[in-house]
Amino acid sequence: MTPKLGSCYYPEHWPEEKWKKDAEDMVASGLSWVRIGEFAWSRLEPEEGVQNFQWLDRAISVLGNAGLNIVMSTPTATPPRWVVDKWPDMLIVDIEGRPRQFGSRRHYCFSHEGYLKEALRIAEIVAKRYGANPYIKAWQLDNEYGCHDTTLSYSPSALEAFRGWIARKYKTIDQLNESWKNVFWSMEYNSFEQVQLPNLTVTDPNPIHELDFRRFSSDQVVNFNHSQVLVMRKFTKMPLIHNYMGRITDFNHYEVGEDLDVASWDSYPLGFLEDRSRQNDEFKHRFMRFGDPDFQAFHHDLYRTVGNGRWWVMEQQPGPVNWAPYNPEPAPGAVRLWTWEAIAHGAEVVSYFRWRQAPFAQEQMHAGLQRPDGEVAPGLIEASQVFSELNDFESIDQVQSKIALIFDYESCWAWEIQPQGKDFSYFELVYDYYKALRALGLSVDILPPNQNSFRGYKVVMMPGLMHIGSDLKSAIDAFDGVLISGPRTGSKTVDMFIPPELPPLVPGVKGTVASVESLRPNAFISIKDSGYFKDWMETLVDCEDVVGVCEDGRPAIIGHENNLYIAGWADQDTLKKLFSSVCNSQDISTTDLIDCVRTRETLKHRFWFNYSDQESKVGLINIPPSGVFWEPL
Ligand code: GAL
Fold first, then answer.
1. Which pLDDT does position 8 carry in this prediction?
2. For residue 621, what pLDDT band results from cuts at 50, 70 and 90?
3. What would the pLDDT profile of 316-340 be if each residue is shown by its tens digit?
4. Is residue 268 within 6 Å of ligand 1 at its C-beta?
5. pLDDT at 25
């Protein structure tokens, strides 16, 4: 199937007379999908017991009659004021114990049973009414779980649900005390009713208390989504989708994804660069109009796996956003570039947020495909260009990459709880490995840690993976490619203790982490004939094979050609050098790319992307400024 384009539309924001023309303009511009309804609850149910769906019926007919496929949504991310008045304790509570107030969105606590009932009730009403509507071809459930820091809630409902969760997990309080080792600091409990949430303690709570709370909180998101799925499934056969966010790791997206048919995410390259990137100022300046050349791709690859191969961009940045510290205009061509990159990574649909810029409320400074006055904005011209270019393609099929990189949500939580050094971030560590691979011109698959086979892969990487479960162990044992792990890989039990046999507990790696240290921002440990370690360094002893050493004499890389463990957080040049020699040993060819050029291989094509306003050359290929180049394979 050829990928399609779409946009996000809010009929409730515009006079009804505009709907038809808007729909026709969308179609004329090459858009074939439109997402609606995700924030419309107060207009569908202005007060308890009063429903008003006629306007939405008409909007759906107008959009559908114009030829658009509709993504209808459940409006549960924006419970209206009367719902909050009915359930005043449904509000999410922050770590300081303060309820987060009504007046924006995502103000609900995932553990509040009254709210869950209310959410399922409205989902059922919407699903019943539109589940079989011929214009509705997909559904979005809720909107951006976890966005605005809304996974963790320290509310009374969360406390009650957490007590139930630990009681189910540990059965007896003695077992919990033993598993958490609450003998430390006399933290032992006599009953589950005494256990609190891990906030407002005088100093750090027990890390396993926090990790269990993180697991519980993730489960609450999974359950909330799952409950909506059960309701929707009664009334519709259409694909169920959620729109995830960039660099939000507070819940296990793989588990939410198991209940859905398609994953999607909201891609805001310039917003993310300013708001969520740890790159330095020079980098941000250089890429201010393009975004980080690897950030979108990382999420495309992650969500392709979360969606079991099926994924969309539900919201694509079309122009300046309103929510980052600085909100520059994309470079001319950047919207087209982002769209093509998503398509090359397998997006079935790229849908722009939003059709027309709203002249009111919180997002009045956020661009759309149209200006607030209805005139065409630059993003729309680029979207239409992609639409006509897509005519040259029948389909853009994905192939399994030769390289797999493991990304694990539990490790994110574990190292947030116990970073041991202020700058340690699991996301950034994995992302550094990803960046180095992309800088070598490689396509990468991102996988969850519960693998039982690495069939088809030649190189597998799992930096920072806290714990290696039994499935993964057997996958590693059966793997005949190259495994690269460390630092911190296999360094904890599943309960976050240092294992009795000291780490790294990576099958086949012979050595012992005798101690670890975290480093100040400008402290580096040089590696002989290579670069350096930063942020994190392990002292490995009793190593059978040492492949590289540090200037201070400590092993830098241990293991053998098929199983390597890296002792610290290596700089990009070191990673690239190591990865290219490993790839060459496996007959995977690499190309050293400059930082603004990236590539992606699909079944029949190789795509090249240029994140700069200068023409870039790779061998004989010229990639136009801010552009895309594709060649058949
Ligand atoms: C997304 C959200 C949209 C809109 C957009 C603005 O996070 O889903 O509703 O707020 O950001 O960039």
1. 98
2. very high
3. 999 999 999 999 999 999 999 999 9
4. yes
5. 98
What lies within 8 Å, CB to CB, of 147 at 6+ separation is 106, 245, 248
- Nearest atom of ligand 1 to the alpha carbon of 39: 9
For residue 329, the number of C-alpha atoms closer than 13 Å in the C-beta half-sphere is 6
In a mutational test of the pocket of ligand 1, which residue from 10, 140, 363 has the highest number of ligand atoms less than 8 Å from its CB?
363
Q: CA 316, 320, 321, 326 torsion: positive or negative?
A: positive
Q: Which residue has the tokens 């499934």?
A: 233
**Residue 561 has what pLDDT?**
87
CA pair distance 116, 106, nearest whole angstrom: 13
pLDDT tens-digit profile of 404-436? 999 999 999 999 999 999 999 999 999 999 999
Alpha carbon of 15 to ligand 1 centroid (Å): 22
Q: How far apart are CA 505 and CA 493, in angstroms?
A: 9
Domains of the chain: 4-150+239-390 (3.20.20.80), 403-585 (3.40.50.880), 599-632 (no CATH)
Calculate how far, in angstroms, residue 40's C-alpha sits from the geometric centre of ligand 1. Answer: 14
Q: Provide the sign of the torsion angle of the four alpha carbons 178, 182, 187, 192, taken in this order.
A: negative
DSSP for 480-529 reads -SEEEE-SSTT-S-TTS---SSPSP--TT---EEEEEEE--TT--EEBTT
What b-and-e string marks burial along 201-239, b requiring 16 or more CB atoms within 10 Å of the CB?
eeeebbbbbbbbbbbbbbbbbbbbbebbbebbeebbebb
Asked whether 557 and 564 are in contact (CB, 8 A), the reply is yes
Q: Is the distance from the beta carbon of residue 321 to the nearest atom of ligand 1 less than 6 Å?
A: yes
Asked whether 29 and 9 are in contact (CB, 8 A), the reply is no
Q: Look at residues 495, 537, 486, 530 and name the one whose alpha carbon lies nearest to residue 516.
A: 537
Note whether 103 and 93 are within 8 A (CB). no
Contacts of 356 (CB under 8 A, 6+ apart): 14, 22, 368, 369, 370, 371, 372, 374
Pocket test for ligand 1, best of 266, 272, 357 (most atoms within 8 A of CB): 266
The amino acid occupying position 210 is E
Return the bridge partners of 240, or none: 139
72-96 pLDDT, tens digit each = 999 999 999 999 999 999 999 999 9
Three-state secondary structure of 298-330: HHHHHHHHHCCCCEEEEEECCCCCCCCCCCCCC
Structure token digits, residue 380: 């729309």
Query: Residue 304: pLDDT band by 50, 70, 90 thresholds?
Result: very high
Rounded distance, CA 65 to CA 281, Å?
49
How far is Cα 199 from Cα 87, in angstroms, rounded to an integer? 24
Nearest to 189 by CA among 217, 225, 163: 163
- Residues, the chain: 633
Distance CA 388, CA 577 (A): 40
| Pocket of ligand 1 contains residue 77 by CB under 6 Å | no
Q: Which atom of ligand 1 is nearest to the CA of 144?
A: 8
Atom of ligand 1 nearest to the CA of 321: 12
Phi, psi of 603 (to 5 degrees): -60, -45
Positions annotated as catalytic residues are: 144, 315
Nearest CA to ligand 1 atom 1: 266
Residue 608 and residue 592 in contact, taking contact as beta carbons nearer than 8 Å:
no
Residue nearest to atom 5 of ligand 1 (CA): 353
